[in-house]
Amino acid sequence: MNLMRTIREFPVPRGAVAMWWFGQNGYIFKSPEGTLAGVDLYLTDSCRALHQEVNLARRVPVLISPEDLDIDLFLCTHNHQDHTDPETIRNLRHKDTMRFIGPMPSCDVYRREGVESGRIQPAWPSCRIEERDLVLDGTFALPTDASDLNHMGYVLSFGGGPKIYVTGDTADHELVHSAAAHSPDVMITVINGGFNNLSHWEAARLAKVIKPRVAIPCHYDMFPDNSADPKLFRAALALNDVRGAYKELTHGEPFVFSR
Ligand SMILES: [Fe+2]
Fold first, then answer.
1. Separation of CA 7 and ligand 1 centre (Å)
2. Cα of 146 to ligand 1 centre, how many Å?
3. Is the pTM of this model over 0.90?
């Protein structure tokens, strides 16, 4: 069975959330009512051509093609191509049944790639968006370079139950700590350190402030020249007294968290 169908048929108990990782910062989350939210789904190899001297050839297989992607909410955290991918958006077949949410530069890409204006909703740090049993709160993220100053993260809350914090690409800054006010149960954090993102150590220091029950590393797996060893994050959590939280996801395999 293809993965999109598996996800659509996957039962999520009350008080739980299911999630699947697609590499880099790409996830699909499913709520107990069956609401499907995708974050930063990079489903092509379009970044390969971005640089001559930086190897950005995709290493993780495309687990769902843009043509097969069938979710309710398509979220992006910022407008870099490994997060808001024009080629993924261009090739979506179900554009007319999804809502597209993200900071303004991502909204421009949605529009440019054929999404109707009525389906696009801007987001920013501290905004709140509700859809069925899902509540999204925008969080602060510090842009990692001057090319795009509209970075953000999200706290997603499922059926009044579990809350998941997705940091998005961010440099280290005390304002990022403000996500702790949402008391997320799960934190999904960049750890690669490259391109001015949080390093494994900075991510662990952030986890010490956020205090999640589960800390999941991401954004280290996709590109040969922007990778890191997630075990460094596991060690950094232990050295910062964040114990028992480390969780490494496997691409395409479900992880169910319940409170
Ligand atoms: Fe990125």
1. 25
2. 14
3. yes
